[in-house]
Structure formats: C-alpha cells, structure tokens
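> tool_call: predict_assembly(chains=two)
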Amino acid sequence: MASEDLKLAIPTRETERWKDLALRLQAGDAASEGELARLFYPHLLAMAASRLSDRETAREIVQEALLAVLSALRQGRLREPEKLPAFVVGTGRNLINNYLRRRVQRPDALPLGPREAIIPDSDPDSGELLFEEEEKRDMVLAVLKKLKPVDRGILFLTLAEGLSPREIALEMGLKPETIRLRKSRALKRVRRKLKKMTRKGRLDY
Amino acid sequence: MDCDQIEREEIIEKYLTGRLDKAGQEEFEAHFFSCPECLRKLQVSRMLQEKLWEKGDKILPQTQKPARVRVGRRAWAYSAAAVAVLIIAAAALWWQFRGPGRPPAGMKETSSSLIMLARIEPPSYIPPALRGAEDQAAERFRSGMKLYQDGRYGEAIPDLRAASELNPERPSIRFFLGICLLMTGQTDAGIEELRATIALGESVYLEEAHFYLAKAYLGKGDIGRAKEELNWVLDKGSNLKEEAVQILAQLR
C-alpha cells in the first residue's frame, strides 16, 4: 500500500489542525518545530523501535525523520498540508527501510550528519523524560514479576520468541483459546498497572 | 483496520515480532499514528518485549533464552547432549506450566519434545556475486532474500511469491519461499513449496527441502511422514545426516 493511499481516520477539526501546523512550519515558525516533534516523536519512536528492535538506532532515525519532514515542509514539498500525519509516517517508514537496506549491505553502519546538533528536542525537559523512561522500564519489570508464572511464560513466548497462540498451546499443553484469553488479560493487567504507576500516563514506548 | 480488529487479530504482537506482511504493517502504522489508545498499547507491548529479551532468562529460569541468542541449527546439530538438554528443559517448562494435578485433556506427553524437534532454524543464505543482467524473477528473488537475511520472513513472502510466479522452475525460489511460509506459521503452504522444490529434481536445495519438510510434518504431528523424509536424508543426503539421525533417535 503506497503512503498516498493511507486513510488516516482524522476528524475535520484535526485536519484543520494539521493544515495550520504545516503552514506555520512552512513559514519557518521556530516554535512550531517543537510542536511537530512533541506531537509525532512518540509515534515515530514506537514505529522505529518496533521495526528495528534497537532503541538507540530508533532514536537516531526518529531525529532524522523529523528533520526530513521539516526540510520537506520548508521546501514546499507537502502539497496537501492536511495530510501531515501520513507524510510523517511515510517519511519515517522510508528512513527505516533505507536503514534496513544499508544494514544488509554494511552491518552496523548508520551515517549521521552534523545536522544532529540542530535537531529540535521532543521536549524541553528531556533530561527529566529520560529519567522517567528508566523509571518506567523498572516498573515494567516489577509488573512482570507480579504476574503468574504461566502468564509470564505466555508473554515471553509471544513477544520474545514470536510464537503464535497455537504454537504456545502445543508447547504448554493448553488450548489456543486459553492462551489467547490469558495473554489478553495479562496485557490488560500490565497496561492498567503501568497507567496507575505512571504520573503523566504517557510512555515513550 | 480498526481497534477491534487489532485486538482480535493480535496485530500488535504480530507487528512486534515481524509476522505482519508489508501491507498489514503499513495499515497498522497508519492507524496508530491517529489512535492514541493503540499507540499506548504498542508502547507497552514494546517495553515488555524489550524487558523479556533482557530479563527473560532471569524471570523465567526454566525456559530457553530469547530467539536472538538461540544457538544456530548447525551448531547444535552436532551435539547430542545439547539436544537432550533442550528436550529436558522443554519438558520441565511444559511440566511447570501444566502444573501437577491438571493434566490437559487429550495431550500426549511427547508434545513438548515434538515441538522442540519441529522448531525451525532458518537456513542461512549467502547471495551469489552478480554476473551479467538479472531477469525479473531474479530481481524479485534478490529483493525478497534481502528481507530474509534480515529475518523479515513475512515481508519477504510477496517478493518470493512473485519471483516464483515468474519462474516456478527455480528451486532456490521455491525452497526459500517454503521456509518463509514455515517461519510465519503457514505450514501447509510451506509444505507445498518444499514439495515443489523436491519435484523439480536434483538441486543444491534437494536435501534441505526433505529435511525441512520433515520439520514441517513434525510441527503438524505427522510423525510417519516426518520419518519418511528424514530417512530420505539418511539414505541419500550428506550434510544433514547427523541431524536426521538425532531426530530419528528422539522419535524412536
């Protein structure tokens, strides 16, 4: 599916919001750069970290994506400003795919330019955010340890080993439906507990 | 794609473990960029995944280590002890999860061992040095195999399928398409491709096609057919003989 075909479920009010933001960025409004980063950094990071399985590289790619979006906007390359989210997804995806292609040819190579130094930060309190991120990772481990061993096992086989419920069912001697149910409940429990434990209710991924 | 479908079809787990095809990936990405709830679910699952990779062996001492540090197929093939340890660990895991006094109905005691024997470590692929112009099938194959080398088996399937349609007579295409299908849980389709590889006759993939076919049959619990394929490797193969002997010994 080409990125132009992406159908993002954005209400009209949202469409106007994206258009406004894109036009401000195009006009070179510095304050809007921070807004762009704050709005899309979590989505891009979730996508890059999931696809690359490498947090540090994911961060670098996200910064690169935000810069590429800014650069494209300033050059007037976004013809439909109301489709800003689809443009950001597409830019992030292209950079991830380019990185993966480069990695196949040259393992561990990620050329980064000097423009890194001028990348707008996703948040002015980034130091505090990094601390919170570590705190959240500790919370995840604490919540995991509170789960029943069987549920920890199901989550492990699902997320770390990539097995399907049918494969896990065979491995654990349970029915696939039981695996699905236990996994779904365990994930809900983790999300609920993390939400309670997180002050802002926001995660970096 | 909507939130219900994402929950029902376990899209987040598939996305995180590379089991979504390219179209599915893009659809999900388009969705979570405009859905805060699904973004949050993805973030939590991703953090869990990372923690389970990091600490899985500590919080689950009886289980095997995560896939990314799993020993290679050929390495453990030469060690009977390693096979035995894996089977014992799997049996212990199965017993621990099953728990005393709760025997699962209709489940044979060998299921866990069988699953371990059926587990597939994808064969490595080294691209040949290119000589001259490539035809369209070779181009699609090369493009699919780049994804394969990166462990993105689900994403490699469309390219390999296209290559197979363009040139169904090339064993390498049918073989690696079969492996990708097996790696993404599409066992019947994988079996079909491996059979097609075998039907093409003598090739460098013939022995491996029989071997992986045996693995696929083990995954389906069809021990009879798995033995037939392993016996073929034993009689006519060379590289995978020892591994076939180990598996046949376990099956006996």
